[in-house]
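Sequence in, structure out.
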Amino acid sequence: MNLIEEFNSYRSQMNEKIMAADNKVIKRFFNLDTNTYAEGAVDVKTKEMIGLACSMVLRCDDCIKYHLGKSYEAGLSKEEVFEVFSIATIIGGSIVIPHLRRAAEYWELLEEEKNTNA
């Protein structure tokens, strides 16, 4: 199993367990998150770029992977993703650089997966 499959599988498995606990607050928070990134006055592609930049500044590797995957699905190009990386690095400073490295690696894996499945 590659890094992308491992991340998505673990995330899905744990989300199912969390939802099975049937906690009203957690369910509402998850719903709020889902609706935040839905198409609206701001398009999904832009929302994912914002989510990615914020995740990088907050230094959440799981969030970065999630938003990279969604950004990829939304059709972001490598150039667009690297502009988001640059914004996050400017805002967050040098402490973002280790996350930038892992984000660049994950983006490469997403691109490789596309080429492998094409």
